[in-house]
Specification:
The complex is a heterodimer of chains A (382) and B (487). With 382 residues, chain A is mainly alpha-helical. In chain A, 70% of the residues lie in helices and 0% in strands. Chain A folds into 2 domains: 58 residues, no CATH class; 266 residues, ABC transporter involved in vitamin B12 uptake, BtuC (Orthogonal Bundle). Chain A is built from 15 helices and no strands. Chain A starts with 12 loop residues before the first helix and ends in a 15-residue tail after the last helix. The N terminus and C terminus of chain A are likely disordered. Chain B is α/β, with parallel strands linked by helices and 487 residues long. Chain B folds into 2 domains: 230 residues, P-loop containing nucleotide triphosphate hydrolases (Rossmann fold, 3-Layer(aba) Sandwich); 234 residues, Rossmann fold (3-Layer(aba) Sandwich). In chain B, the strands form 4 sheets. In chain B, strands 13, 16, 17, 18, 19, 20 and 21 form a 7-stranded mixed sheet that branches. Chain B has a 6-stranded mixed sheet with strand order 6-7-8-3-9-10, sandwiched between helices. Chain B has a 4-stranded antiparallel sheet with strand order 2-1-4-5, covered by helices on one side. In chain B, helix 3 crosses helix 4 and helix 12 packs across helix 13. About 1% of the residues of chain B have low confidence. The chains are: A mainly alpha (382), B alpha/beta (487). The interface between A and B is large, with 39 and 61 residues.
């Protein structure tokens, strides 16, 4: 947690009440979690399914065996990358909805480089490195496009990103059914799979690659250090919290906005590259699998604190993988995990909003009769 | 309709926006409400028009005490407010705009209502094209639409909050004649402004607010001097002024012209020398902030030159000005100056001269502690900007100002501060000024201008006086010039 948030230097009762005690906050978060489970249980009951059985199946599906847990880790990596990426844009006050499309573009460029080089004599290690690098560049460029639209075209990044997501999906479909279609007929199952030597090496008998795990964890650490320990991160935050003041204090604001996009897009592109080189070994229509949007949800859920990315992303990945069991065992749709995740984000935001309203009321009541700090002799703005 | 306000009080946290205001306005008058920004005018009008409740006090209409819970309530009782920005629906036709606030069921009786509207417009002397799109109207036409709507809904008291912002002289004349006509027909008009000349021209009586209190009332013929004194008077007078001998030139403006909105400054020539302090006097919005922004590089001049230490800067970006020794401190401390959510340490780190890549938190904390002690800020390094009081925010702003800045541009540097903070802030500023800097600041406090400036420029409606020597100018003289008198 950033030391901006934990100010214990004036441990007065008033201040701890206003900033919110860490334990109270923790309790509120747990409360939100319980509420999310309650709501999901209600939905399950309406659908005629036993909630506890469903949760048990999800749990077993996620951690019931080494294979299933390794699958959770496979889903964890793109979530780590996407969530870490959007923390950078969130810090700059930007809603990078386009992260989904940036993952897709990363996958597209990676596939392109692999296709280009797969029949050459270049060593597979070099090909994989180049392909992943191309993915990073692809995601970054797609993100910067949204940034440029915002900075120079006045297009809000939410709309720009949304539009670019559609373009990215359309591009993928066109490639799969057009220029890159399988010999014979193109199909939703994607392009022709690449040979095994062009994939990231996996652990014996499992689908998870130590390389992609390493990259995902590295990205989170990188973002944490960047946001909490560097001037770059501080300036990003300044831009995000008050662009005008940041500009007047000497921060080149729009340039930092573009850099945030570049950084987030790079990580998203890396996620796409990993999906191609270590999970699917080809380009498929749903290559991003909604990981970008889930990354945004994680960012909101953890209130943009990088330290929480890894555990919360793991929880989300476990829900996703665990719920794959549901259709088989309970004849339930696997989107249950999405319901639970969405409900969780909503309740956490709701509880936080309620807390802030309550605190403001408390603060007003304290401030009304006597002044909190130095009295103002003149009246302020009316 | 006669309006009486009795002991109106409204607090926002520690700030007393209205501090026991009592005012009585007879029917058929045009009552002016005069005062600087933050004097409590808007708050009082919002209370009278039902936008917000008073903490204390009562409102009497024609002698009967009334309770207004919403603007709709107020309008039912006959009080309507025309806002600074017309609150209409630009994408709709005039007639439909008028119908929106009308009482009635779901079904619209367009033709019937239109006829009634047209009739009404004629009777109050407003010429409105009911079929025009609102987006095609000028600001003053939209004001007429809004006035029409209020009258049609039964308003007998009309409140106008700074209605002349953004309209031309001809439109202003039109608005004023409409208002006079309405007053003749027995409507009560309450006209809020900080512009003396408008009050003089239009109002049959005026009340002056200052720091949430009613400090005086007047009827024509108005004495400008008396009004200015009421607006600007300060209760406490701190020690005597200290002069310092000016050194070499820092800033030179030659035949500068800047423009924003309706205000245009022209043919400005000024030379500011080391250790010199220039005060900018005038009613709010007379062009002082344009000059400051032009000197800061935030507003590119239309023509002319801005020369800083021999280097031509006009047209260069703000950050270039900043790198070349210009510091700008805006009036809106928490909107433009500091960043809410960041701590004092963060602010000092953000403005460090040669930062590097990684942040050394310990060093940042010790720098923060040092500056907090030096500038006597009541707060700790981990306090966020918004948790500080106004005076301490201002001290923090000065503390993060680059120490090597040669030219300090300050907008209302002591507005809203207690007298102790005012004296402290100026001591710090003068220290830096005497170390070879120069200051240009705007203020609405005549004592402050006279005490701390070496020379004063008086702004009136975009015109700038020749620099006055602060030593040989009196408060009365300055007040007269601010009110539009000539040198």
């Amino acid at each position: 947690m950033s030391d901006a948030r934990t100010s214990h230097s004036t441990p007065t009762r008033l201040r701890s009440l206003l900033t919110g005690d860490a334990w109270i906050n923790f309790g509120l978060q747990i409360g939100a979690l319980i509420l999310a489970f309650l709501l999901t249980s209600c939905i399950l009951l309406v659908a005629g399914a036993p909630p506890f059985e469903a949760y048990k199946q999800v749990f077993l599906g996620a951690v019931g065996s080494v294979t299933s847990f390794s699958n959770v880790l496979v889903a964890w990596v793109p979530l780590l990358l996407a969530a870490a990426g959007v923390l950078v844009t969130f810090a700059a006050g930007l809603w990078n909805i386009g992260v989904e499309g940036q993952i897709v573009l990363g996958a597209v460029l990676t596939t392109w480089v692999l296709r280009l080089l797969q029949d050459t004599a270049i060593s597979p290690v070099v090909i994989i490195l180049l392909a992943i690098l191309a993915g990073v560049v692809g995601g970054a460029l797609w993100a910067v496009l949204a940034g440029v639209l915002k900075t120079f075209g006045g297009v809000n990044e939410i709309f720009g990103g949304l539009g670019l997501n559609f373009v990215a999906t359309a591009l993928t479909l066109w490639l799969i059914f057009g220029p890159w279609k399988r010999p014979g007929i193109g199909s939703m199952s994607g392009t022709e799979p690449f040979p095994e030597r062009l994939g990231l090496p996996t652990m014996a008998g499992l689908r998870v690659s130590p390389w992609s795990l390493g990259l995902g964890i590295l990205a989170v650490i990188l973002v944490f250090v960047l946001l909490e320990r560097t001037y770059f991160g501080l300036r990003l935050k300044a831009v995000g919290k008050n662009t005008r003041a940041a500009f007047l204090l000497g921060v080149p604001t729009w340039q930092y906005g573009l850099l945030a996009f570049l950084f987030c897009g790079g990580l998203a592109g890396l996620a796409g590259a990993i999906q191609v080189t270590s999970v699917y070994h080809r380009l498929i229509p749903a290559i991003s699998s909604g990981y970008g949007f889930m990354g945004l949800m994680i960012g909101m859920l953890i209130a943009y604190r990088a330290i929480w990315v890894a555990p919360v992303a793991l929880f989300f990945a476990a829900l996703n993988i665990g719920s794959i069991q549901l259709p088989i065992v309970l004849k339930l749709d696997s989107t249950l995990s999405g319901v639970l995740q969405g409900a969780l984000v909503l309740f956490v935001l709701l509880v936080e909003g309620a807390r802030q309203r309550y605190m403001r009321r408390v603060r007003m009541r304290i401030a009304a009769p006597t002044t909190l700090e130095a009295p103002l002799s003149a009246s302020g703005e009316t | 309709m006669e309006v009486q306000l009795l002991d109106i009080r409204k607090h926002f946290g520690p700030i007393k926006a209205n501090d026991g205001i009592s005012l009585s306005v007879p029917a058929g008058t045009i009552q002016g409400i005069l005062g600087e920004n933050g004097a409590g005018k808007s708050t009082l009008m919002k209370i009278l028009s039902g936008f917000q409740p008073a903490d204390n006090g009562s409102i009497l209409l024609d002698g009967r005490e009334v309770a207004m819970k919403s603007p709709a309530d107020a309008l039912r009782l006959g009080v309507g407010m025309l806002h600074q920005d017309p609150l209409d629906f630009p994408a709709m036709r005039v007639a439909d705009n008028l119908l929106i606030g009308a009482p009635g069921g779901i079904r619209l009786h367009r033709s019937q209502l239109r006829a009634s509207l047209a009739e009404h417009a004629r009777s109050v002397g407003l010429a409105l094209d009911l079929k025009a799109d609102v987006s095609s109207l000028t600001v003053s036409e939209r004001q007429q639409v809004e006035l029409m709507r209020l009258l049609w809904l039964g308003a007998r008291v009309l409140i106008l909050d700074e209605p002349t912002t953004g309209i031309s002289a001809a439109q202003k004349a039109e608005l004023f004649s409409t208002l006079r006509r309405l007053a003749e027909r027995g409507k009560t008009v309450i006209f809020v402004s900080h512009k003396l000349e408008e009050i003089q021209e239009l109002c049959t009586r005026v009340a002056v607010l200052k720091q949430g209190r009613l400090v005086g009332e007047a009827t024509p013929p108005y004495s400008v001097r008396q009004l200015v004194n009421m607006i600007f008077e300060r209760e406490v007078t701190p020690g005597a002024r200290a002069a310092c001998a000016p050194g070499g030139p820092i800033l030179k403006l030659s035949s500068l012209a800047v423009e924003r909105g309706r205000i245009r400054l022209e043919g400005l020539d000024l030379e500011v020398r080391e250790t010199e302090t220039i005060g900018l006097a005038g009613m709010e919005g007379s062009g002082q902030s344009l000059l400051l922004k032009a000197c800061a590089g935030l507003l590119p001049p239309v023509e002319g030159r801005v020369t800083m230490l021999g280097q031509e800067l006009a047209g260069k970006p703000y950050h270039y000005f900043k790198r070349n020794g210009v510091a700008y401190v805006p009036a809106a401390r928490l909107e433009e100056g500091l960043i809410a959510g960041l701590t004092l340490t963060d602010h000092f780190l953000l403005t460090q001269r040669k930062p590097g890549f990684f942040i050394d938190r310990e060093k940042g904390r010790s720098i923060a502690q040092e500056r907090i002690a030096e500038f006597n800020i009541r707060g700790t390094p981990s306090n966020t900007a918004e948790s500080l009081s106004g005076g301490n925010q201002q001290r923090a702003l000065l503390a993060i100002m680059k120490p090597e800045a040669k030219l300090m541009l300050l907008e209302h540097p002591t507005r809203g501060l207690d007298i102790e903070s005012v004296i402290y802030v100026w001591r710090k500023l003068k220290e830096r000024c005497n170390a070879g800097g120069a200051i240009i600041f705007s203020s609405s406090d005549l004592d402050e201008l006279l005490r701390y400036s070496d020379r004063i420029l008086v702004f009136f409606a975009g015109r700038v006086s020749t620099p006055l020597d602060a030593d040989s100018t009196s408060v009365e003289e300055l007040g007269r010039l601010i009110g539009g008198g000539s040198v």
